[in-house]
Amino acid sequence: MQARELSRARLPATVRAWGNKAFLVFLFPVFLLLSPCAGHAWNAAGHRQIAALAWEEMTPATRRQATDLLRQHPDYARWRKRQREKDPDYGVFLEASVWADEIRADPRFYDEKKGSPTPRLPGFPDMRRHGDWHYRDAGGGEIDTRLAQLAHDLLHAQRAAKVYALPWLLHLTGDIHQPLHTGGRNDRGGNQFYVRVPSSAKRAKLQTLHAYWDDLPGPSGQRGAALAHRLAFLRRLPPPSSVEAVGDIRRWFAESHALIAREVYPPTRGATLDANFRRRTQSLAAQRLRAAGQRLGRWLNYLL
Question: How would CATH label the architecture of 39-304?
Fold first, then answer.
């Protein structure tokens, strides 16, 4: 008996009767619960929005420095081919901000917790995906300490290390402003907390709370005119009101973490998110994106 047939034969008769399609639907939440992936922070649209707002804060000299470093990155040609902006340097900067998430599905790189090392390619110090760089919670992660190291590298390291550090710093500055990447309620940053999100379909879509927050910036493929429209909205939001030190990683982390207790979660698991909750979280996400963009741009003015 083949493995698939053996597995199916061991299922209860009532489950076997559903057929393959229903069986997959039944097990889908189980697969998500067992998956070791901690989830991304903001989707690609969110990271491009943060990078675009940062670019506006950057001085011409900082933009030139950033562009020069990105041109030496091994994946520069990929970013240049994919960008859709009139200024290709600006477009590449936006695409570079998404790179740290993209390598999590890139076969050139490996998951150090479950995969075998892949061959090191020229220009990369290692080929690990570094999934635990994106967050910190009770179960681990090192986003705050990693950001501090990346900033140090941009200031003091050799040029090759700076080339590698810049895309990571662009990305993780965005990640640390997503509340669920600074903790949760013993649910892997909301990855084990399911909610139902109203959609155009008759039934609300079941997804994790983490995925819901990641997608608040809008469709992942947002570029060009759609991105410009979104940026016009974000620019109208007030910037962070408090005076703070440039690159205040501890403050950013504390801000995001404090929101978990007050704003991030709906009242119950499995709840259908009502219009009031969705409006409130959309507004909060926009404020976090706005703050991340301004802070990133000013930080780069200092680091570069």
Answer: Orthogonal Bundle (1.10)
